[in-house]
């Protein structure tokens, strides 16, 4: 897949269990949730016309990045849209990763309500 082949890793490798689980989860997301994930990490829900190799960041072309988030693995994934960067905690199972990722992208797309 285009996004996967245009992704850089920091703290993980393409063969890390968490990275393998991430891509498996992404492969099974609905079209709407894929758009939410893209919006969460990059700030846009649209794929660049030229594909993910042309993804733009704060200073021009910037590949999609997955960084290991150190610390408590109960935290949600976080993102830095200026750098197309997903900070992914070292979850212990694919199910935990899926649940946390979906919660993060849904909360971000719906906003946090106070009332």
What does this structure look like?
- The protein has helices at 2-5, 17-27, 31-42, 94-110; strands at residues 7-10, 56-57, 60-61, 64-69, 78-80, 85-89.
- By secondary structure, it is α/β, with parallel strands linked by helices.
- The chain has a single domain (2-42, 71-110), classed as Hect, E3 ligase catalytic fold, CATH 3.30.2410.10.
- The strands form two sheets. The protein has a four-stranded mixed sheet. Strands 2-3 form a two-stranded antiparallel ribbon.
- Helix 3 crosses helix 4.
What structural class results from the helix and strand content? alpha/beta
Strand arrangement, major sheet: 1-4-6-5
Q: Number of helix segments?
A: 4
Q: Rg to the nearest angstrom?
A: 13 Å
Query: Might you state the CATH topology name?
Result: Hect, E3 ligase catalytic fold
Mean pLDDT: 93
Poorly predicted parts:
none
Task: Briefly summarize what is shown.
The protein is α/β, with parallel strands linked by helices and 115 residues long.
Which key terms come to mind for this protein?
single chain; 115 residues; alpha/beta; Hect, E3 ligase catalytic fold; four-stranded mixed sheet; two-stranded antiparallel sheet; 38% helix; globular
């Amino acid at each position: 897949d285009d996004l996967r082949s245009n992704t850089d890793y920091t703290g993980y490798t393409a063969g890390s269990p968490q990275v393998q689980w991430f891509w498996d989860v992404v492969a099974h997301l609905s079209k709407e949730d894929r758009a939410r994930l893209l919006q969460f990490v990059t700030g846009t829900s649209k794929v660049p016309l030229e594909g993910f190799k042309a993804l733009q960041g704060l200073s021009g072309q910037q590949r999609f990045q997955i960084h290991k988030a150190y610390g408590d693995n109960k935290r949600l994934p976080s993102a830095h849209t200026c750098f197309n960067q997903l900070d992914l905690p070292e979850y212990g199972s694919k199910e935990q990763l899926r649940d946390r990722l979906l919660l993060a992208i849904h909360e971000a797309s719906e906003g946090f309500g106070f009332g």
